[in-house]
Amino acid sequence: MQTLTDLSPKEALKQFFGFNNFKGLQEDVVNSVLEGNDTFVIMPTGGGKSLCYQLPAIMLEGTAIVVSPLIALMKNQVDAIRGFSDSDGVAHFINSSLNKTEINQVKSDILEGKCKLLYVAPESLNKDENVEFFRGVKISFVAIDEAHCISEWGHDFRPEYRRLRPIIEQIADCPIMALTATATPKVQQDIQKNLGMLNAKLFKASFNRANLYYEIRPKNNVGKQIIQYIKANSGKSGIIYCLSRKKTEEIAELLQVNGIKALPYHAGMDGGQRSKVQDKFLMQDVDVICATIAFGMGIDKPDVRFVIHHDIPKSLESYYQETGRAGRDGGEGVCVAFYSPKDIEKLEKFLQGKPVAEQEVGMLLLQEVIAYAETSMSRRQYLLHYFGEEWDPVKGEGAGMDDNSRSPKEQFDGSEEVKMILECIAEFKELHKAAFICKVIAGIKNSEVTTYKGNQSKYFGEGKEHDEKFWNAIVRQMYVRGLVAKEVETYGTLKITAEGKDFMKKPQPFMVVKEVEIGETDDEDLIIPKQGGGAVDETLFKMLKDLRQRMAKEKGIPPYVVVQDPAMEEMCTQYPITLDEIAQIGGVGKGKAQKFGQPFIDLIKNYVEENDIERPIDFVVKSTGTKSLQKVQIIQNIDKRIPLPDIAKGLGKSMVDLITELETIVSSGTKLNIQYFIDEELDEDQQDEIMEYFMQSETDEIRAAEEYFDGDYEEEPLRLMRIKFMSEVGN
Predict the structure, then answer these.
(1) Strand ranges (E), 266-327
(2) Distance between the two ends of the chain, CA-based, in angstroms?
(3) CA proximity to 321, closest of 340, 342, 335
(4) In the structure, what pLDDT confidence band is assigned to residue 165 with cuts at 50, 70 and 90?
(5) pLDDT digits (tens, 9 = 90+) for 500-512
(6) Same domain for 172 and 221?
(7) Do residues 189 and 84 both lie within one domain?
(8) What residues make up the domain containing 117?
(9) Is 103:35 a contact under the CB 8 Å cutoff?
(10) Beta bridge partners of 64
(11) How far is CA 614 from CA 11, 533, 535, 600, in A?
């Protein structure tokens, strides 16, 4: 076993894993763990979370325990670590799949100091004999992966996760690390409180999807509005979410009779039916899918151009996830939700009969949805604040990309109103929710107000010239701008922040957006703008899209394999009319130009001549520059069948970086034969299974493949198989 304790993190990274550089927040996280801090990591899938605990575990004295609910993935993680070491004892797992002899071997390696990383299921950690054993060995730290499982507010709650803290305390006095790919402030706070790590160092990536446009519309003649929008955006792919299975079928039928290619998709259909619908969506035989909100669609098409919520979802987490299916390729992504108080009443009925605590949680989540739908401030700002991220609505990336920002509402100085609200919250000792405070100020009596003597407050009726909605709107803006916070454990009780206390002492001008009630609207007034820029020739783009679909059908391959949307958009601004010119389009390259380019060139050339279009004088040539020599070297080494890790090592690259280079080479149209290496990693049946997936899938995104195979394959083999697929089928 190599001794890495005296090396810097970067030196240890190079020596053990062979990587030259950290990615994103990794280095800061590793340093935090090495310094002995409790550390909380919120990092999206693919951000490199695993290395954040693997490297410090290798560097520190003792054994690091990694708690994971994913028993199926433990062996893969352990095998991956062992692949970097000269000793198999460096990493182990303990779970229900091991027999007594195997568990004794694991414990022996821990006692001898060989094991640096031990993966444990929470149920295994809870066993008395394991607790007793761990108390007798040096534990460097405990890492809790998929930490959102701790929280009843999380999307994957596991009760056994809430018992981890007392078990860890029995085992050792050591730092705790929590890792998750998704967490709202509620979930984050619940995790930190349950694990007793409120002072942990927090590392969090951004939730901002700058290319998405957000809009809320009143629910009037929704079918007509949807039809108008889709017909104005003919040929674009979209998803319409509905509250019930019946509604998905009704909307799909309505669209069909109006000449729109649409199909329903919900959990009530059998697997074969759903597969057929997905295939039709993938092959662009169908433009629109109507799906239930509750059913998690396995569709991650990169070119979904709009997501429409026919019915408002039950939480902002659901809304964020569902709108996130739009514009995954970085292009246009329009997100429109139709809002009606009647939808909220339906969702409230769904909560009836559930345990009281669950009803309280559900109601608070619904209140957040209502607040988002009814606010007149920037929707992006509200959404990102909900996920704990501050964002500038003037200068932030994606500014202006929502209906409220496009059509700013009237503002007024609400400093006096804000001060009154803060003082009223303070008078009632920060024990009430927004609804109570707003009723008191507006002078509205109900049982809650009289029970807690709100009608005897000096603030009762002080703002009666305005209704409760007016005061609620100001509270929402105070919340987003940090003057008040909502207490998680008490389901939304308002607390005054440090900024709020400063404001009470010294009020400042506080511009408030004047809220307008969502009411009747002209059906013609559906504001769903196209992505900014407008330089793309829409007529040509539609012609190229039709051509791509015909070519894909002839060859029996998904359209994205022929060429992706961003490349066609570039063709619609550059108008390439030779093979050399089309090869310079991003995502085409010489190989793809040779294989698929001629029909595109012929179409563009005729279009340019017929419409007397003036092409750009200097066609933009995209060169590989200094990388061209390296590219040749990589291709030559692959031709010599040199193992990929050896190629990476020779170039001073990590395996991840080399795979990224291979993807770039293949996407530019060059064939690469890495079959010799894939044969070492996967058997024939596995290769066939993955190849069949990429042939049938509507997207080439690795995350979608990982979700489809549910942990059967790790990221690296899937990326390698995608390279093989694109090389053989696309080039």
Answers:
(1) 288-292, 304-309
(2) 44
(3) 335
(4) very high
(5) 999 999 998 888 8
(6) no
(7) yes
(8) 9-204
(9) no
(10) 117
(11) 55, 19, 14, 18
